[in-house]
Amino acid sequence: MRRLEFVRICAVLIGAVLAQQPSHAANEPLSGVRLEAAIADYKAKLEDYTQARQAYEQEAKAYWASVADKRRARNEKRRGQQPIVLTDYVLTQPPVYRGPPEPINPVPPPPGPPPPRGVVPVVADFLQAALEQFDFQPQMPQKEIEYKRAYAKAAAAAGLTKEQAVRIYGFESGGNGRYDVQAGLEYPRPNPQAISTALGYNQLLSTNSVELLAEQGERFIAAIAAKVAAANGPRKRQLERKLAVLRRMIAVSRSVPDEWGEHEKLGKTPQGLGIHALNLDIDIGPLLQTQKLLDSVEFARRKGLARPLTAAELEMMNLTGDGNGFDMVSMPDDLRGEVPTANFFQPNGYAANRVAVVNDTVAKLLKATDIKMDKEAELPGAKELASVFP
Fold first, then answer.
1. CA spacing 20 to 30 A to 254: which of 8, 38, 72, 80?
2. What gap in Å lies between CA 278 and CA 281, rounded to an integer?
3. Euclidean distance between CA atoms 341 and 361, whole angstroms
4. How far apart are CA 154 and CA 168, in angstroms?
C-alpha cells in the first residue's frame, strides 16, 4: 500500500472514531489506553517496514555493485581494444521498494523550531562573492542578444555545430533562458528557490566553473589576452583588469587537488561562488559555457569516436559525465534498446533523475531527449540563438 493511501485510510478511520467522541476530544492528543494501543500498533508496523526496507536495500546494494563491476570490466575491455557486447551491461532494471510504507509515530516530536533548510545561493550571491573576494563585477550584457552573439561566436570557434549549440541551449535553459537563468528559477513556473547553482545556457554548476578554470585556464587567458591586444582606450584597460582577475581566480581554482570532490568543496565557498560569477561576464561567460561542451567532444575524440556527436549524445555526456556519457554514446545502435539507463548513473543520481528512470533504456532516453530538443528549439530564444550563429 502506498504511503499516501495508508495515511488517507488512517485519516478516515480516525475521523470515524473522533466523530463518536465529545466535540472537545478532536483536538486532544492520544492518551491512556488509546495511546498505548497506538504505540503498540506503530511498533508492529515499524518492524514490518524495517524488515522490508532492509531486504530492499540489500537487493539494491547488490544491484548497484553489479553495475559498478560491469562498468569497470567495460573500461578494462576498452583499454584492451576488445569489443563491448550486450552481456557487458546489467540488463535488468534497478529494484523498486514495494514493501509497506514507513509508519507515522503517534507520539509527536518535542516542540521546537524545524531544522534549518539549506538555501541554494543565487545570482545575487555570486555577484556579491565576486565583489568581496576578487573586487570583480562581471560585465553583463545590456540586451540578451549581445550575450547570444558572444556565445554563438565562442561555440563556433570551439568547433561546435549550430545544431549542437542551439539544441543543447534549448534543452538546458528551456528554449527561452537568459544568460543568467538558474536551475529552479526558470520561466514560466519558477520554484520558490533555486534547486542548484546550475547557471546559464549550459547550466554549469559552481563546481564546473572551478574545474574549468583549474583545467583549462590557459585557454581562457589566451582568449582574453588576444582581446586585450586588439583593444585600445578604456576597453583595453577594462580587459587588462579582467585578465588580472581571471589569473587570480585560476590560481584559487588550482589551490586544491584536481579532483571533482575538491572542486565541489571549493565551489561552495565564497571564493568558489565568486568564480562562478564569471559565467555572467560577456567576455568570459560564453567561453566557460562552451568549454564544458568542447571538453566532452574532445574526450570522445581521444577515446576514438571520430564521427560528430548528435546534440542528444553530447547532452548525455553533459548529463552523466564524460566517462559514462562516452560509454553510452559509443554503444552500437542495436544494443541501445536493450541496455538500461541505470548502467550510466550512480545510485543517488539515478534516483534523482526522473527522466532516466522513466525512459529506462538508452534508446528511450535519447529519443526523449531529442523530442524535448525538437520542442525547445522552436521557441523564440533558441531561434534567436540560431539566427546569430556564424
1. 72
2. 5
3. 5
4. 15
Question: With contact defined as beta carbons under 8 Å apart, do 339 and 89 qualify?
Answer: yes
Give the rounded distance of the alpha carbon of 247 from its chain centre.
28
182 has which bridge partners? Answer: 199
Angle at 93 between CA 89 and CA 97, to 5 degrees: 145
DSSP state of 148: H
Residues contacting residue 28 through CB under 8 Å, at least 6 positions apart: none
What is the distance between the alpha carbons of residues 228 and 99, in angstroms, rounded to a whole number?
Answer: 64
The count of other CB atoms within 10 Å of the CB of residue 237 is 12
Q: What is the pLDDT of residue 187?
A: 64
Give the single-character DSSP code of 20: T
Which of 310, 309, 342 has its CA nearest to residue 324? 342
Distances from the Cα of 203 to the Cαs of 3, 155, 280, 318, in angstroms? 34, 15, 12, 10
Residue 28 confidence (pLDDT): 55
**DSSP-assigned states of every residue in 281-334:** STTTHHHHHHHHHHHHHHHHHHTT--SPPPHHHHHHHHHH-HHHHHHHHTS-HH
> What is the dihedral sign for C-alpha 61, 62, 67, 69?
positive
- Three-state SS for 199? strand
Q: Is the peptide bond before 188 cis (omega within 30 degrees of 0)?
A: yes
The burial class, CB within 10 Å (0-12 / 13-18 / 19+), for 115 is: exposed
- The confidence score (pLDDT) of residue 13 equals 38
Burial class (CB in 10 A: 0-12, 13-18, 19+), 85: exposed
Q: Which three cell numbers stand for residue 352?
A: 534523482
Which ranges of the chain have pLDDT less than 50?
A: 1-27
